Each structure stands twice: as C-alpha cells, then as structure tokens.
Amino acid sequence: MSAVLEARDLVAGYGGLTVLREVSVSVDPSEVVVVLGANGAGKSTLLSALSGQLPLTGGQLLVDGTPVRNARPDVMLAKGVSLVPQGRGTLTGLSVMDNLRLGAVTRKDKAEVGTDIDRWFTVFPRLAERRDQVAGTLSGGEQQMLAVARAMMSRPRLLLCDEISLGLAPVVVQELFVTLAEVNRELGTALLLVEQNAELALEIASRVYLLEVGEVGASGSAESFRDDNSIRAAYLGY
Ligand SMILES: Nc1ncnc2c1ncn2[C@@H]1O[C@H](COP(=O)(O)OP(=O)(O)OP(=O)(O)O)[C@@H](O)[C@H]1O
Fold this sequence. Notes:
single chain; four-stranded antiparallel sheet; globular; binds adenosine-5'-triphosphate
C-alpha cells in the first residue's frame, strides 16, 4: 500500500534561509499523524511545502507512490491534499456559503456539492445558522470550523491542519478534535496535524514525527511518545 503522501528528503526555505533539511515523512491512507516540534522548528514550513504553497529546493513529493511534478497548491488539491492554514483559512469578505462553495471549486462532481454543504452544516450547526454571514465577522471558533469545512469541501484524502486550536477556547478545541476524529473514521480522510495542543493531537493520532531545527529528530507510535518522559516534559507539560 502506498502512502497518500510521502515527502522524500525535502529541502525548502525562504530566500537564502534553508528551513527544512532533507525531511522525509509519510502519511498512509486514513492514518492520523502528528508533527511535534519547538517554536521555529519548521512545522508550518513543512505543511506549506507538502501542500505546494512553498516551492521545494530539493527532494520530492509522491502521491500514491507517484512523484508529483510541479507541486503547486492547485495540483496538490486536485490530488487530494488540502490545507487548513494557520490563522484560519477563510475568505473573510465572503459569506459562509460562498466560502464553502469555493472550497469545492476543484471538484468534478458538482452535483453533490449541495449535499456536502448540508453535511457540514449538520456537523457545525453554528455555521448553518450563519450561512449568509460574512466570514470575517464570525467568532474565532466559528471561523476555524469554517476553515475545516471549507478545506473538506474538496473531499480531500489528506487534510493538513496547521495549529487549528490556536487561540480557541478549550471547549471549542475539544469539539473540533471530536469532529476531526469523526471525519477520519467516517470518511477515511487521513490527517496530518501540526498542533500546540500535543496532548489532544496524540489522543487521535497513531504516529508522530518530531521536528528539530528543520530535521526529523525522532518518529514513532503516538503511544511510545506519550510514554516517553522527556517528550512528555517538553511537549505535554507533565
Ligand atoms: N515567510 C517567511 N520568511 C522568512 N522566514 C520565515 C518565513 N516563515 C517562517 N520563517 C522562518 O522559518 C523558520 C521555521 O518557521 P515555521 O513557522 O515553519 O516554524 P514552526 O515550527 O511552525 O514554529 P511555531 O511553532 O512557532 O509556529 C523560523 O525560523 C521562521 O522565522
């Protein structure tokens, strides 16, 4: 079985600054993987590179075992890799409905777009009540729900989530993680989570990569990371 997405020896950065140094990670179909790392380790940069937002200066991306040429965001989206970027990926000037419709823009099965919008309104009733409201006036939690639903409207096989709990109340974070676990279980969507709330992420993840200054310092099962005293002290705070 090929990974939905595999990164081999990725090198990427900004101008003259190399952030990712030969990073290799993979996510299997329906797998939940979490990337941990200190501030500035390169976690967001990794998700940008995996979603085609940041050009690679070395290495390769493979989808279903096949190398991706020209990994631009639209290409990666069409291949089933969708990003929920840090800081809420919504178009703030557009309504909730229009954000969701635009999330489906790459899909060929347009007939089912309405059904999917209804599904996400069932998952997030607060969005249904605000369907005509401009996204920029939603609360932080509502915007994050919209960002997840919008990214899911492309029916991705892999959802990349960059710090979706940032700035949200614990109860909203809990709700979002329950939803992500359901999405994974019921739709089979694989998840790659970059998350400050490591404890919650480890609850739903089966595997972990630890990024250290742009390199994979360690990897293993979520269980082994939870049982590791130094990891617990550094990332789980107990
Ligand atoms: N657009 C950019 N231009 C230049 N340098 C950048 C840019 N974005 C990030 N960096 C730098 O790249 C390095 C990695 O940043 P990145 O945001 O990927 O880390 P992170 O692990 O996600 O950190 P955090 O947990 O603090 O969000 C940092 O040193 C950062 O200053």
